[in-house]
Design brief:
Elements lengths: L5 H9 L3 H23 L1 H18 L8 H22 L5 H7 L12 H20 L2 H12 L4 H8 L3 H21 L13
């Protein structure tokens, strides 16, 4: 989602206008939180999202234009990757355990019936568990492309790498997700099973 006067809000924020920055936070808080949730799980997502906006505010003077959403999601991605490194370096509950405690699929849909809702949650749980098995770079690019819908141009900016690297990470991540789900297809509801 792009906001109408984003450039003006950024410039005002750079001059110290907290109301303008709060408008930017409100516009992007859901995307930042969802990225953190899918990268880190429910236990750490809120803190990482908050840290993202604090870091963005502190670094706002260094923003030289371009795509603000990609810049913001890159900050969030870096914070998530730092947290994943911290988690690997110290004994803690696994990401899989955090995912079982709370998942993006736990939010009910208003339009689905009970059976559809249960199937949607089951698929969401399997997708989230599959994402958790991917290396951080592949997980990040899959979330940014397939969940948040960033363009390839935005992805290169958000990831800080070349288009070829982005496309390769997407291809590898999708292949690993496909393999993960195919290995567990009997656990998926019938309509989500891949036909061979």
């Amino acid at each position: 989602m792009a906001i109408a006067d984003e450039g003006q809000l950024v410039r005002s924020s750079q001059k110290g206008d907290l109301d303008a920055f709060n408008t930017l936070v409100q516009a992007y808080q859901r995307q930042v939180y969802n990225l953190c949730l899918r990268m880190l799980g429910a236990a750490a997502a809120e803190d990482a999202a908050q840290e993202t906006f604090i870091a963005a505010y502190r670094r706002l003077s260094g923003f030289r234009g371009g795509n603000f959403r990609a810049w913001l999601l890159r900050i969030a991605a870096n914070i998530c990757c730092d947290e994943l490194r911290r988690q690997r370096s110290r004994p803690a509950a696994s990401l899989a355990a955090a995912l079982e405690a709370g998942s993006p699929a736990d939010v009910p849909s208003d339009s689905a019936g009970p059976e559809e809702e249960a199937l949607r949650r089951e698929l969401g749980r399997h997708l989230q568990q599959g994402l958790a098995t991917l290396p951080a770079e592949q997980r990040l690019v899959i979330i940014l492309r397939d969940v948040h819908g960033l363009s390839y141009e935005e992805l290169t900016e958000a990831m800080g790498c070349s288009l070829g690297t982005v496309k390769s990470r997407i291809a590898r991540g999708r292949a690993r997700m496909r393999d993960y789900l195919m290995a567990r297809r009997e656990l998926l509801a019938r309509q989500f099973r891949h036909k061979e």
